[in-house]
C-alpha cells in the first residue's frame, strides 16, 4: 500500500472530537463578548483579545476547510435562532 | 310407515326443531318411529353433532376464503399504488467494496433490507452523526430480534456507506472509516463517473469543488431504505431519531411480509 499524503487521510473519531472541543471553547468565548461572526475577529483581532488564544488552538486543531465551514455555520445557526425567536414573538402577539 | 305421513294432523307443528313433526325425519337416527305425536322427540346427539360440525366447517371455510381474498386485494392495491406515486429511486450499479477491493453489485445487497447513506470521510460533523445514527438503528433492531454478534448476513437491515468523494476516499480509507461506526457496515467507492451515476439514480445531489486537497463536498443528507428486492421503500432526513426510524422500518417490514415478500 503506497503512503498517502497526510491531507488525504481523514481525521479519526478522536481527532474529530478534539477539533469539536476546541471549536466549542472558541465559540463560547465569542458568545461572551457577543461576537457572532468569527470573520470579524480575523479582520480586527483587537475586538476579541481574550479569545485569540483559543482561536489559535481551534485553527491548529482542525482542518482549514472545517474551520471555514464551522465559522459559516455558526453565523447561519445564530441568525436562524434569532429569526425563530422573532417569529415566535410575532405570532404570540 | 308411509301411513304416518298421510295421517292428517290437527296441530301445527314447527318445521324443524326437536318436536315431533309430520315431515320425514331424514336426519333422525331415532331407533323407533313409534312414539306418540304429542311427545317431544328425544334429542339425538348424532343430529346435533352433525349440525355443529357443518356449522364449524362452514365457518372455517369462510374464514380461509376471507383471508385469501384480503391478501389478494392488498397485493393488488399495492401494485396499483406503486405504479402511481412510487418514485423510481435506486437501480443497478457496480462499485468497489472497500473491504475486499473487489467489484460489488447492487444485487449483492438483495435478500436483506438495507439502509444507504451517501457521504464522504472528510465530512466535519454531519456524516459522522448520521452514520452513528444509522449504526444505532441497526443495533436497536438487532437487539430487539435477539441477534447475536454482528455478521452482515444475520442483520435485520444492512448499513451501507457510499462515498461522494472518490478522489480522496480510496478503498483503504473507506475501509478504515466505516469500521469506526459499525463492524458490518458496507463501504463502497469507485471511479468518479460511476459514483456520479449511482448518486444520480438515488437523486442525491453532489457538488465537488475543484480544490486539490482540503475541501468539503456538498451533498444531500438522507438515508435510503431499500427492500430485499432492491426496491426503494422510504428516505429519512436528518430530523428523524433512531427510534423513529426503527418504528418506521418495522412497519414497512411487516407490510412487506404481508404482501408475501420473500427475504
Automatic annotation (TrEMBL), chain A:
PANTHER family recorded: CYTOCHROME C OXIDASE ASSEMBLY FACTOR 6 (PTHR47677:SF1)
Domain of life: Eukaryota
Gene name linked to the record: COX6B
InterPro entries in the record: COA6_fun, COX6B-like, CX6/COA6-like_sf
Record-given protein name: Cytochrome c oxidase subunit 6B COX6B
Keyword Secreted: no
Record key words, sorted: Disulfide bond, Mitochondrion
Lineage: Eukaryota, Fungi, Fungi incertae sedis, Mucoromycota, Mucoromycotina
SUPFAM superfamilies: Cytochrome c oxidase subunit h (SSF47694)
Species per Swiss-Prot/TrEMBL record: Phycomyces blakesleeanus
Automatic annotation (TrEMBL), chain B:
UniProt entry tagged with the keyword Manganese: no
Family listed: Belongs to the SCO1/2 family.
Keyword terms, alphabetized: Copper, Membrane, Metal-binding, Mitochondrion, Mitochondrion inner membrane
Native organism taxonomy: Eukaryota, Fungi, Fungi incertae sedis, Mucoromycota, Mucoromycotina
Species name: Phycomyces blakesleeanus
Compartment(s) where it occurs, according to its Swiss-Prot or TrEMBL record: Mitochondrion inner membrane
Name the UniProt record assigns to this protein: SCO1/SenC-domain-containing protein
The keyword Mitochondrion appears for this protein: yes
Domain of life: Eukaryota
Amino acid at each position: 500500500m503506497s503512503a498517502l499524503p497526510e491531507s488525504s487521510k481523514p481525521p479519526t473519531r478522536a481527532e474529530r472530537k478534539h477539533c469539536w472541543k476546541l471549536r466549542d471553547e472558541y465559540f463560547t468565548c465569542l458568545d461572551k463578548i457577543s461576537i457572532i461572526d468569527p470573520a470579524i475577529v480575523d479582520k480586527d483581532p483587537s475586538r476579541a483579545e481574550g479569545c485569540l488564544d483559543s482561536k489559535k488552538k481551534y485553527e491548529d486543531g482542525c482542518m482549514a476547510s472545517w474551520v471555514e465551514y464551522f465559522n459559516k455555520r455558526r453565523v447561519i445557526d445564530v441568525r436562524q435562532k434569532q429569526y425563530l425567536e422573532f417569529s415566535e414573538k410575532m405570532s404570540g402577539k | 310407515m308411509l301411513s304416518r305421513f298421510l295421517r292428517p294432523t290437527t296441530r301445527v307443528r314447527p318445521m324443524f326443531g326437536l318436536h315431533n313433526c309430520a315431515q320425514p325425519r331424514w336426519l333422525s337416527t331415532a331407533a323407533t318411529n313409534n312414539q306418540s305425536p304429542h311427545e317431544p322427540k328425544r334429542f339425538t346427539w348424532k343430529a346435533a353433532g352433525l349440525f355443529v360440525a357443518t356449522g364449524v366447517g362452514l365457518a372455517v371455510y369462510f374464514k380461509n376464503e376471507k383471508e385469501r381474498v384480503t391478501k389478494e386485494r392488498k397485493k393488488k392495491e399495492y401494485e396499483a399504488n406503486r405504479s402511481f406515486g412510487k418514485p423510481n429511486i435506486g437501480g443497478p450499479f457496480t462499485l468497489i467494496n472497500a473491504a475486499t477491493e473487489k467489484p460489488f453489485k447492487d444485487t449483492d445487497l438483495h435478500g436483506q433490507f438495507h439502509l444507504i447513506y451517501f457521504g464522504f470521510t472528510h465530512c466535519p460533523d454531519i456524516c459522522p452523526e448520521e452514520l452513528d445514527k444509522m449504526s444505532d438503528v441497526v443495533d436497536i433492531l438487532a437487539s430487539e430480534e435477539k441477534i447475536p454478534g454482528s455478521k452482515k448476513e444475520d442483520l435485520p437491515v444492512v448499513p451501507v456507506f457510499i462515498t461522494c468523494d472518490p478522489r480522496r476516499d480510496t478503498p483503504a480509507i473507506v475501509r478504515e472509516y466505516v469500521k469506526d461506526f459499525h463492524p458490518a457496515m458496507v463501504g463502497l467507492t469507485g471511479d468518479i463517473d460511476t459514483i456520479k451515476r449511482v448518486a444520480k439514480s438515488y437523486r442525491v445531489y453532489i457538488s465537488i469543488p475543484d480544490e486539490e486537497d482540503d475541501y468539503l463536498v456538498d451533498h444531500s443528507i438522507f438515508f435510503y431504505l431499500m427492500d430485499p428486492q432492491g426496491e426503494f421503500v422510504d428516505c429519512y432526513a436528518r430530523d428523524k431519531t433512531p427510534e423513529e426510524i426503527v418504528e418506521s422500518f418495522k412497519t414497512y417490514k411487516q407490510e412487506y411480509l404481508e404482501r408475501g415478500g420473500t427475504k
